[in-house]
UniProtKB/TrEMBL annotation, chain A:
Name assigned to this protein: Prokaryotic molybdopterin-containing oxidoreductase family, membrane subunit
Transmembrane segments: 20-41, 53-74, 95-116, 136-160, 181-200, 220-246, 267-288, 308-327, 334-355, 375-399
Matches recorded under InterPro entries: Electron_transfer_protein (IPR052049), NrfD_menaquinone_reductase (IPR053549)
Swiss-Prot/TrEMBL keywords: Membrane, Transmembrane, Transmembrane helix
One of the record's GO cellular component terms: plasma membrane
Top-level taxon of the source organism: Bacteria
TrEMBL record, chain B:
TM helices/strands, residue ranges: 12-33
Domain of life of the native organism: Bacteria
Residue ranges occupied by any Cytochrome c7-like domain in the UniProt entry: 118-185
Pfam families according to UniProt: Cytochrom_CIII (PF02085), Cytochrome_C7 (PF14522)
Keyword line: Electron transport, Heme, Iron, Membrane, Metal-binding, Transmembrane, Transmembrane helix, Transport
Protein name: Class III cytochrome C family protein
Class III cytochrome C domain: residues covered: 40-92
Gene3D superfamilies documented for this protein: Cytochrome C3 (3.90.10.10)
GO molecular function ontology, one term from the record: metal ion binding
Species name: Desulfacinum infernum DSM 9756
From TrEMBL, chain C:
Domain 4Fe-4S Mo/W bis-MGD-type intervals: 50-107
Keywords: 4Fe-4S, Iron, Iron-sulfur, Metal-binding, Molybdenum, Oxidoreductase, Signal
Family according to the record: Belongs to the prokaryotic molybdopterin-containing oxidoreductase family.
GO terms, molecular function: 4 iron, 4 sulfur cluster binding; metal ion binding; molybdopterin cofactor binding; oxidoreductase activity
Source superkingdom: Bacteria
Pfam families: Molybdop_Fe4S4 (PF04879), Molybdopterin (PF00384), Molydop_binding (PF01568)
Protein name: Anaerobic selenocysteine-containing dehydrogenase
TrEMBL record, chain D:
Species this chain originates from: Desulfacinum infernum DSM 9756
A molecular-function term among this protein's GO annotations: metal ion binding
Name of this protein: Prokaryotic molybdopterin-containing oxidoreductase family, iron-sulfur binding subunit
NCBIfam families: mnquin_red_QrcC (NF041782)
A Pfam entry, by short name: Fer4_11
Gene3D superfamilies according to UniProt: 3.30.70.20
Keywords assigned: 4Fe-4S, Iron, Iron-sulfur, Metal-binding
Domain 4Fe-4S ferredoxin-type: 1-29, 88-119
Amino acid sequence: MDKALIPEGVKRCPLPVFGLWMLVLFAVIAWGVYAGLTVLIKGLHVTGLNNYFGFGLYICVDLGIIALGAGAFFSGFMYYGLSRFFPQLKELHKIINLAVIVGFCCYTGALLVLLLEIGQPLRGWFGYWHANVHSMLTEVIFCISCYAIVLVIEFVPIILENRKLDAVKPLHIFGHNLHEIMAIFAMTGTFLSFFHQGSLGGVPGVMFARPFAYREGFFVWPWTFFLFTLSAMACGPAFTALICRLMEKVTRKQLVDRSVYELIGKIEGVLLLIYLILKGLDTLYWALDTAPGFGLKLSDFYKEPYGMWLLVAELGICGVIPVILLLTPQARKVNGLLFLAFFLDCAGIVINRFAMTVEALAIPVMPFDQWAVYIPTWAEWAPCIAMLAYGAVIVSLSYRYLPIFPRERELNP
Amino acid sequence: MGEVKNSTSKKGLGIVFFLAGFVGALILGWVVFPNLLYSSKTQPVTFLHSSHEDSSCEDCHYFRDDGSYSGVPGVAKCAECHEEPMTESEDERILVEEYIQQEREIPWLVYAWQPDNVYFSHAAHTEEQGIECVRCHRDVSAEEKMPVYKENRITGYSKNTMKMVECEKCHAEKGASNSCHICHK
Amino acid sequence: MSLGRRAFLQFVGGAIGGTLLTPIPWKLADDSAIWTQNWSWRPSPERGEITETTGTCLLCPGGCGIQARLVNGHRAIYVKGNPDHAVSRGGLCPVGAAGLQYLYAPYRITQPLKQTGKRGDPQGFQPIAWNEALKIVADKLAAVRKKGLPHTVACITGQDRSSVTDLWKQFFAAYGSPNLYTMPRHSDSTRLAVALATGYDADLGFHLEKATYVLNFGAPLLEGWAAPVRIQQIFSRWQTEQPGLPKTELVHVESRCSLTASKADRWIACKPGTEAALALGIAHVLIREKLYDAAFVSEKVFGFEDWTDAAGALRKGFKALVLAKYSPKDVAAVTGVDAQVIQELARELARQKNAVVLWGQSSDTPNNLYHDLAFLALNALIGALSDKAMVSLVPSQPWQALPEPAMDLEAFKGLGQKPLGQPTSVPKTKVRPNTLHAFLNALANGEEYPIELLFVHEANPAYGLSENTLAVQALQKAGMVVSFASYLDETAAYADLILPNHNAFERLDDVIGLPGAPFAFYAVATPILKPHYDTKSTGDVVLGLAKTLGGTVAQSLPWKNYEEVLKLRAAKIAEGATGLLVDATFDPASVEPGVSLRANFKKAADVWKKLTAGSCWVEAPQALDACTTPSGRFELACQGLLASVSTNAGDELFMAHYKPLPPSGNAGELPLLLTTYRSLSLAPGYVPNAPFMNKLLPDDLLLKQDVFVEVHPETARKLGLRHKAKAVLKTPLGEAPVRVRVAPTVPADVVALPEGLGHTAYDEYVQGKGVNANSLVEVHLDPVTGLGTVWATRAQLRLA
Amino acid sequence: MVIDLDKCTGCGACAVACQQENNVSFRPDESDKLRTIAWMTLYRLDNGKDYPEHREAMLPRPCMQCDSPHHSPCTFVCPVNATVRDEHTGIVDHIAVRCIGCRYCMVACPYHARSFNWWDPKWPKTMEAMLSPEVSPRMRGVVEKCTFCHHRLNRARDRARINGEDPDGVVYTPACAEACPTGAITFGNLRDPHSDVARLAKDPRAFRILEKLHTEPKVYYLSSDQWIHKQSDNDLS
């Protein structure tokens, strides 16, 4: 049965080994589910959240993972949209399936974790029914759920390519038709994703009474709206590439042409550079104009453990360095440097999301108030780690049973 | 290739199965579900407004000086007339012996019961303001027996509890404020 | 099989489609959300008619008028100040505002209890019927009296301003025991000082409403001193600019940066416990620079100049002693206050027309007699006791309401016994020294005579008495302990029998006199609602016991119930026909000493009606003329002390002087001084902190179960202690775990510990939080009065 | 609302009265100040100087009912309209039964005026008797905050209706102002130029907390101490 499901002409590890791997992942997921149930049944006091840190690891991980999952929309955008104008982008075809799957994992996982984060999950649907159009969170709720649906739709044809399912005629036709119109969904997804990545940035940016997070902006959107979108574009494909590389390492096979990595490297390098310049300008404007307007100077925002190192790490180590590496053709040629750059790129964006949520809240706005420190508990770590395990399950299953890498057969004769 | 031959009949059968599921669900949802959702309860004592026509509405349902509304009267009010049974009725015996004499309040099931978080100002919804009692409450004048009290098993609400949309709608129509704290506490 | 599966899928598809067209998913989503809005485990408060009743708060001696809101007349949901009340005018302190949490406390005693196990075992209490319980007590009382040992019955009451205390007095006189004590108060020592200086038995009243300058030696005005709400309102008045009136200036002398110090117009930081020396230093400057009220001193004061005692010996007067010993330079060395500041303060004090001097560490710690005399002397020098009457004498019992007790031979014999443990040297004045510490000491050590039966009424000495371990030891030594506690507190735990009193909000009671107020005061506290447990008013219980005992005891307490006693008071007020029944329009500034107020009432029934409706009776204090001292004047040199100090005593021993009692322990091993402080958000008295109040405590005062001591940064550095570090605080009495709040609120080498924490009884909302300050501070018995005083304790603080 | 810090003695009667009036829940251990539920919080300020120049003061902080144009910081962000400012009264209300517990409003509020119900509120059985029916107890997983006792406003309006008066002209006092023994808290209609609060808000001693954020708090403070003024807002000097 297992054999029959595996795509034709490729080699997969023996079922027992795969089974064991799944078992490990399911154990992690079970741990996360246990933690999740604990949170749902006992309440949020089992987490490290408090009245000062209303947002914590859950939100941080959600923001991070959604930024990293942006590979789906942005690769789709480049492949389905921009490749008309830039034919070299057709190359992305080789990794687009993985990008969709990673995106699917990230978004569905984030939604699950988000369910834990709200104090009254059974009222979660109020977000749709009683929506406050002014709230960035409303935009987030609508766009993320719509986009998650889009991702499901994008994922379905990939599933239908499974050998067994493809043999079923109606399904085959259905899948084929879906493929035909995939460009439409990809563009819808792109639109939605542009929007909600931005609204996630809007979440901190609109808090006009929180000097660390608040940014002025354009029309109804603060600058963070655009910065978040841009930063997500600058790290999503890199994350897809990292996952792909990881899979190659695990399977000891080449799954995509190296040229794909280099292409992504180039794109990400440029995007990250643009992002960094804008983010730098934003930071300068914020530090020199916005914050002083609130009576604060830059050093007021950074105090241990949330010290200045965060800014250095975010913009310097994980910003400037990857840009240099990615924009240097020689460095792109070296696997170690290329993937280090991808990794730093992703890490920098995650640090950004951390700073915009957790650190933003640690700063006492009232001068007589105190700095607070947030320490997540196991009940927060477990679901987040389980979410990664869930992603691993989906990716593993997809890899094993679906022909997601069109070039796998040729590259591994 | 025997499968191909069967496909049309299969398709026909398929629709039957589909319809069976569809109709079954409709029946379940529209007929069985509402009956399952509500439990029926009867009042601890039968009270007929029609038998109390010698008293006026305001004898029992009145505004207090602080602007609050008395709502359902307490057993002390009943005791004003029913210190001793006035008739042979079994219900009155229960009223007198089990409640009035023991100074216990009657656990009435209030049909229009609103939850804790609702602040309903009767003072703002009076007949002088053009809102008849029967706009929200049942007409009790000619009632011959008390209606069955239906309680939602999940929410604990009475089936007759007015939902917020109705309040909002009327407020919007009349130009009254729909600010949350007007009706919530 | 394939058909089956496919059919099943089709069926499911249809079902899903159909379900979406029914109310099921939508109604379920909606209803489950509604369910979360009305979770059954979340209490749903009963609705109904909301009414208001008035009453008087009995949680402290402040006598605030309150109003309670009730639902359907039986459930109290809110307590607020009564805006019509003469003294509190709608104000309330946090303890009063949290009062319902005592009324509905889970640690209320709901019925009489009898200890069936070992004394002190909380599990050993078993319910007992009232009549049985009362019979046990009555039998014991009869048996002891029969043995001819009535003086071995003792009582400690925490309610010294209620008619119940008068009933106890009456009962103990008729029964024949001198061992009736109240929980310590500052008035224990000031009343003695006043008696020695003036011959009157009176409390001191301070005319703060009129004052333009208040020099306060350590009295925690804003932390719950005297009648707390009255003081708060006076403070508020001082802070309000009134056109045409000079702003009242508050100068506060204290070692710690308390809230009063912070809020004062000027804070003079002195070394702990040296306030009296500063007062005498100021007196020195006043005398040297002739700034004192010379007319008053020469006409009304004795002992300012040198004097001759009864034996004919020439003795030095106050002037000579103060000039000799308290020069600003000397005082500066003792107190740490600049000599120049001392001079400044003296001149400022003299310049002001309406200046007044206040003092006292807290309302329930007696002071060193000589120090009380020093502050009193300073008030005399600035003329505060003159006709200006910034300080006046308020009779502690404005009228004798109860008839003289009938006493039989047994009663005379018993009452004539020396109170247990009382030193023979105590001054003989109209005021009976309340030597509770000495009593407990003797009882704990089995000295003199045993105590067969000990009543504890509205008091919790096992927690609330300084050196509370003494009380615990004493309780264990008593033959039988009967408690009237409403709550299962630390002391009640040691009782053999508990006859629970109604809670402070449930009982009919009264308030006789307001501490620190410059007028006589009487109010009736009416219950805000019916008692909801099987409890009995202690007043009624005392009357019932007297009746059971029969004979002269029953004759002395002939009233049917406690209400009758209170009505008798109302009748006496009507009979006396002086004083006013007042509401919030009452202006204390209009009261002048010695000028009786014209009564605005006639009939006793009328008085009762008004009193129970929340009116208060007030009357002017007495004038200072015709002191009943040997000299007939205000005595700076107290001749009354001749009997208690030896005849060849030094001249200093007759009058105010600075004489700290040396703390025990080795300064090398215990290099720091421990002082305690209180705050209005910590109930240190008979009731513990209510949960509502716990919310107010900052996390550098109480963190989980750890209390914080305040330490100066320099001391902390020296001891290697960081902010929030865990440490051990050690005094000669024991040691306790604490945490350190490093803050410059105290001088170097001083540790400050809050009072009111460290309860071992009650419930999980109270228990085990912090350390009981009383278990660490040292009591110094004043060698003259025998009263237990507290000022500072040697201590050590080390990293845990 | 105007709070006179010169008069405030930090006794906490306001906070206690508030808890009692509004059925604020409490727990055996209330020392975790980051998780406690408090509508009225007392902050301790000090002048930062050494002994004996050291001074401390207490600052009671209710919800500031921010009047910033269009939206308060919190109402702007609530995804489900659970917290909305009523432009007629100016009160920022929060409806616990609508709240989904996302805590975005808490994050947006710089005054920490909002608390989250981390636990199921639980009262000792005997103390359930003192819960007020005027304010519905909250449940776990929702945010709550000071409402300026708007239920008292509703009651006052009802009383006016019954007595034939104008329900829009009523005045009322919230629990904190009612309880304050020093009369430090004055409450009234800031929009009415003749009201005490409007007059006091113009006092030279008046300031608001964090004015630079343009949240436009409707709670004013009065103090004659410059060091307290200085701590009302962040300052670069």
